[in-house]
Specification:
Structural class of chain B: alpha/beta
Largest interface: A-B, 23 and 32 residues
Shape of chain A: globular
Radius of gyration of chain B: 18 Å
Strand content of chain B: 25-35%
Radius of gyration of chain A: 24 Å
Number of helices of chain B: 10
Number of domains of chain A: 2
CATH superfamily of chain B: P-loop containing nucleotide triphosphate hydrolases
Number of strands of chain B: 10
CATH topology of chain B: Rossmann fold
Order of helices and strands of chain A: HHEEHHHHHHHHH
Strand content of chain A: under 5%
CATH class of chain B: Alpha Beta
Largest sheet of chain B: 6 strands, mixed
Strand order of the largest sheet of chain B: 6-7-8-3-9-10
Helix content of chain A: over 70%
Bound molecules: adenosine-5'-triphosphate, magnesium ion
Oligomer: heterodimer
Order of helices and strands of chain B: EEEHEEHEHHHHEHEHEEHH
Largest sheet of chain A: 2 strands, antiparallel
CATH architecture of chain B: 3-Layer(aba) Sandwich
Distance between the termini of chain A: 65 Å
CATH architecture of the largest domain in chain A: Orthogonal Bundle
CATH topology of the largest domain in chain A: MetI-like fold
């Protein structure tokens, strides 16, 4: 009798397990499927537009012909510029927050602020960037103003991922270092940062992914509607992929005729983000191995 | 002349009274064992001497600790300097994710030593002292994580020895090790006594008996009995001490 009961509950348990397992599996497969469909859609539509001229020529005939070269270059400038600004500031503030402040009001306040900053819609950053960098500081519509705005946007991500990276460094390493008479700065430089480095890099590159696709923050600060030449200084305007995509999909001279160009642009943008992410993984592996050895 | 003098040392973790007015003197070139049931404050007391408790938030300490006649808790005290003089080995081996060589060289480097030759010599000497040299001399560039637990612990001892402290604090240094590694570390402690003042926390009564000259028995934050190890183990004055070392409680 007792045996039977056990068997029964056992079966029930197994059934529950199976249902849960399959439900989770279904969900994750669903997510992957949706992503794959989006990718496939863009690839199928965009591939036909992509050729050497498309990647290396200036746009022509009201952006229905020619290439997207200035937009690609512009996007790389903006990525570089924003990271130049956000990486040092973000990493240093994260170090300050995690290694220097004691648990308490200041720490909680800074955390609250950075988290809130992360939640602000990017268009608001665009407005702010326009007011501060374009007008007040007088940079005009320029790569400088756009990079600073994008940099601000990515700061919370950089800070948060760096903080996570520092948090994952076991305290026994810090204690071991202090016990040998190392100062806090030495401990951070020689022990903590090398260990946290692979994860910090990953965070930085993830935020590059975010920056490279944003349209709103560059709308009022740098992006040119149509500018068939390359920028020559940081005070020049530039075209950029996301904005270009927006323009030729909505308000180009001939939206229908630009369609293939639009999908081609989207494909290039996605390819850049994918490459950057692959790079992040590669770097993390590379440095992950190196840390143990040096 | 005493190497270390602790006077009425009291320590609080926030509201919790972890050390209750401990007064104790340590002679140079002796090994002192701290024994007592889990949670009685041995590790806490050990961390008093290199001010590692300072790193824990909510710690308040009062009383007086003199090392070589200097008050280590005076406000102008350079704590990094203190920690160079008072080395520490932890219960769990905690080598850095660096090579074996760099682990031992770390303390020298953070102390501003740049002379390559000097560092190499000192690393070798420390590894010989910690009885690890023969096992690692051909793979100094390999990651310290490739060593066994016992080897890692001896590496951590070498790391502490490299900067030539005069006091060595050891918190259950052999508790995670097999009998052979343990024996090696005990031999090592015996050797090191010639040059160092050693305070060791241990739960192993045989070990305390084997390696130490003096033994101190702690119980819930208080120092119950302190004296020559032989005396404590053969003729304890306090019944609590007797109960503990004969295994009747704790
Ligand atoms: N960081 C801390 N915060 C709060 N209380 C602590 C902290 N560290 C230790 N304590 C408390 O202080 C008391 C003494 O702890 P300690 O680690 O010194 O004991 P111990 O004698 O070393 O024990 P064990 O033999 O288990 O290592 C314990 O009751 C412990 O709970
Ligand atoms: Mg302890």
């Amino acid at each position: 009798m007792k045996m039977k009961l056990e068997k029964h509950t056992n079966k029930k348990k197994q059934l529950k397990q199976a249902i849960a397992f399959n439900l989770f599996r279904l969900m994750s497969f669903g997510v992957v499927a949706v992503l794959a469909i989006i990718l496939l859609f863009i690839i199928v539509r965009g591939a036909s537009a992509i050729n050497w001229t498309f990647l290396t020529a200036m746009p022509e005939e009201g952006m229905t012909k020619g290439g997207i070269f200035p937009a690609i270059i512009g996007t790389f400038y903006l990525i570089g510029g924003s990271m130049l600004f956000a990486c040092p500031i973000g990493v240093l503030s994260a170090i300050y927050i995690h290694e220097y402040t004691k648990a308490g009001f200041i720490k909680r306040f800074i955390k609250l602020m950075t988290n809130n900053l992360a939640g602000i819609p990017s268009i608001v950053f665009g407005l702010f960037g326009m007011t501060l960098f374009v007008n007040t500081l007088g940079f005009g519509d320029s790569i400088l103003a756009g990079s600073l705005t994008l940099g601000l946007l990515s700061l919370p991500v950089v800070i948060r991922t760096t903080e996570e990276a520092l948090k994952s460094v076991d305290d026994s390493f810090r204690i071991g270092s202090y016990a040998l008479g190392a100062t806090k700065l030495q401990t951070i430089r020689k022990v903590i940062l090398p260990i946290a480095f692979p994860n910090i890099i990953t965070g930085l590159i993830l935020s590059i992914g975010r920056v490279s696709g944003e349209t709103a923050p560059i709308l009022f600060t740098v992006a040119a509607y149509f500018l068939p030449k390359l920028p020559t200084s940081i005070f020049d305007q530039t075209m950029a992929l996301p904005y270009h995509l927006y323009v030729i999909s909505t308000s180009g001279t001939n939206v229908e005729a630009s369609r293939p160009m639009a999908y081609g642009t989207a494909l290039v943008l996605i390819a850049i983000v994918l490459i950057v992410n692959l790079l992040a993984n590669g770097l993390r592996r590379y440095f992950g191995n190196k840390v143990k050895m040096n | 002349m005493y190497k270390i003098q602790a006077r009425h040392v009291s320590l609080y973790y926030n509201d919790f009274h972890a050390l209750k007015g401990i007064t104790m003197d340590f002679l140079p070139n002796t090994v002192t064992a701290l024994i007592g049931p889990s949670g009685c404050g041995k590790s806490t007391f050990l961390r008093v001497f290199n001010r590692m408790n300072d790193l824990i938030s909510g710690v308040k300490i009062s009383g007086n600790v003199m090392i070589d006649g200097e008050d280590i808790y005076e406000s102008k005290k350079d704590i990094d300097e203190l920690r160079k003089k008072v080395g520490m080995v932890f219960q769990k081996p905690n080598p850095f994710p660096k090579s074996i060589f760099e682990n031992v060289a770390y303390g020298l480097r953070v102390n501003g030593e740049n002379d390559k030759k000097f560092i190499e010599e000192r690393v070798e000497r420390s590894l010989v002292q910690s009885a690890l040299w023969e096992e690692v001399k051909d793979k100094l560039k390999k990651s310290a994580f490739e060593l066994s637990g016992g080897q890692q612990q001896r590496l951590c001892i070498a790391r502490a020895l490299a900067i030539e402290p005069s006091i060595l604090l050891m918190d259950e240094p052999a508790s995670a090790l097999d009998p052979i590694s343990t024996a090696k570390i005990e031999e090592l402690i015996y050797e090191l006594k010639k040059n160092y003042t050693i305070i060791i926390v241990t739960h192993n009564m045989q070990q305390a008996g084997r390696v130490s000259d003096k033994t101190a028995f702690f119980y819930i934050g208080e120092l119950i009995e302190y004296g020559d190890t032989k005396e404590i183990f053969t003729n304890p004055k306090n019944p609590r001490t007797q109960n503990y070392i004969t295994g009747r409680f704790g």
